[in-house]
Amino acid sequence: MKKIAILCLTLLCVLLAACQSGEQAETSPEDTVQAFFTAFETADYQSMQNYCTEDCVDTYFHDGDVFGMVWAKAENIQKQTIEEEEGFLVDVQMETAPTSALYPETETSFYVWLTQNASGDWLVDSFTTG
Description:
The protein is of the alpha+beta class. The chain has a single domain, classed as Nuclear Transport Factor 2, Chain: A (Roll), CATH 3.10.450.50. It is built from four helices and six strands; from the N terminus they run ααααββββββ. A four-stranded antiparallel β-sheet has the order 3-4-5-6, with helices on one face. It has a two-stranded antiparallel ribbon with strand order 1-2. Strand 1 and strand 2 form a beta hairpin. It starts with a helix and ends with a strand.
């Protein structure tokens, strides 16, 4: 009886290990945008960078703002697919940086464009205005 229990336990461990050895599920574009704006609400620029391409960080992240905004809270996020590009039209409440062209506005809308990396993860790549 003990041998059967040990055999069953060993088999269970092997099966569980096999299930976990697969690759992690890819992120979805929606998950990426949600996580990005969750961090943006609190101006957590370091966390935001985890959801961005290197080009995005180099282009849009500045000392104390991202794309002219100190922080931004997503009020509405609508998926957009234009010419096979994955994007979202996002309405935000925000605090603009004094150097922003939108200063002192507190609301705006803009597009967030994503790209999929070699690992299958979706990352924010650029922003455009309407």
